Amino acid sequence: MICDTWKEKLDAYLDGELAPAEARALSEHLRGCAACAAESLSRVQQKRLVQAAGRRFTPNPAFRARIEQSIAPRRALRWNRLWFPALAGAMAFVIVGVLFLNLNHERRNDQRLLSELADLHVATLASANPVDVVSTDRHTVKPWFAGKIPFTFNLPELQDSAFTLVGGKVSYLNQSAGAELIFRVRQHQISVFIFPEGAAENIRAVQNAASFNARSWSHNGLCYFVIGDVSPQDLDKLSELIKSAG
Amino acid sequence: MPHFDRLYNFACWLTHDRHEAEDLVQETYAKALKGFSSFQLGTNFRAWIYRILRNAFLTSRVGLKAAVTEPLETEGEENLPSEKETPESILLQRADWQLVQEALERLPVAHREVLLLCEVEEMSYQEIAATLAIPIGTVLSRLARARRSLREAVRKMQGGG
Questions:
Q1: Is the Cβ pair A59, B1 closer than 8 Å?
Q2: Which candidate from B8, B89, B124 shows the least CB-CB separation from A39?
Q3: Of A160, B140, B151, B159, which one's alpha carbon is 20 to 30 angstroms from that of B92?
Q4: Sheet containing A163-173, strands listed edge to edge, beginning at the edge strand earlier in sequence
């Protein structure tokens, strides 16, 4: 009987385990065979009954908690692994915060120093005697400072440049004596301040104040500040000349 | 905990005892954790953990007792007589799930577990074969036999009640 052959495959068909081609053939047969269709329906109902009957026992919460606890070390480990990135994140946040505050603090300090230097520069421009040693000759100006300030410095050769040396005078910043040199480029005057490193720090964050441009660097324990109402390019040129003199 | 509720249900069906089932599930998770390295990625995790539970059951007191009291039947893909049992089928349609529960309880463990894995856990024949560590052909024949003996058990209970 061909129906017997089909019935043998009915379970696999209903379990979804029959090859597609065979499954198609069987479902074709079921459409035409009332006996096999009834058998199929009966087996589907059995499957459903067993499924419903089989889902019978549910664990109580206390037991679930006990098992969860018994595998807790693994869980704790996982929490640890989560903690490290969290901690690292928090620390990164704090570090960024401190850096930002620091930067802000630095910026405020720079601003204060720069406006002080700008004040000194303006005072010099406004003075009836802007310089105490009047000379375009660096070999005159440099020795003049000897004994007046606690350090010495070199001045550049300006012959082939647009700058001329006007002169110099002793200046004070944070109770420290330093040198102020006046240079001229076209109609503009530029002040170059030289202070010992203890008296002033380099300006890093700010490069202009009250329309003055400024440059600053350190060399051999001295802080150099170049400030004036000239273009940044002119300031850079003068800075390079002074740096090259060492 | 993956498959926790299902494993517990399966353990209860195997042991007929909630305390035994709890011990079995606990042992299963302990063994699974300890032996997780032996689990091969890409293979069936569900079959793996059910197999651990079943092996733990077979070596437990209840499991050993069941093995002694239920003689191993000769299994093969042959000698599956074709069924002409329309009257039984009709009886089964009228059976309620409580009756089926009782019938399931009375089945030998080998039949009960294969029915549960197939109908309740909805495992594929391949998964069942991996769980029970038997060839697919044996899954087919055992499943057919289990279904038939369930129908017979229900019929007996209906006839007797």
A1: no
A2: B89
A3: B140
A4: A133-134, A163-173, A176-185, A188-196, A222-228, A212-219, A208-209
The domains of chain A are located at 2-53+107-245
Q: Assess if CATH 1.20.120.80 describes domain A2-53+107-245.
A: no
The SS3 assignment for A2 reads: helix
Q: Provide the 3-class DSSP secondary structure of residue A82.
A: helix
Closest Cα of chain A to B94: distance in Å?
A: 10
Assembly ipTM: 0.84
Which pLDDT band holds residue B78 (cuts at 50, 70, 90)? very low
Cα within 13 Å of Cα(A107), Cβ side: 6
> Given pLDDT bands bounded at 50, 70 and 90, which one contains residue B57?
very high
Lookup: tokens for A123:
């005072």
Q: CA-to-CA distance for B71 and A222, rounded, in angstroms?
A: 101
Q: What tokens does A246 get? A: 């060492």
Tell me whether residues A71 and B83 touch, CB distance under 8 A.
Answer: no
Whether B120 sits inside 8 A of A55 (CB atoms) is: yes
- Interval B81-93: pLDDT, tens: 445 455 555 556 5
Q: What is the pTM of this model?
A: 0.54
Q: Cβ–Cβ of A71/B1 closer than 8 Å?
A: yes
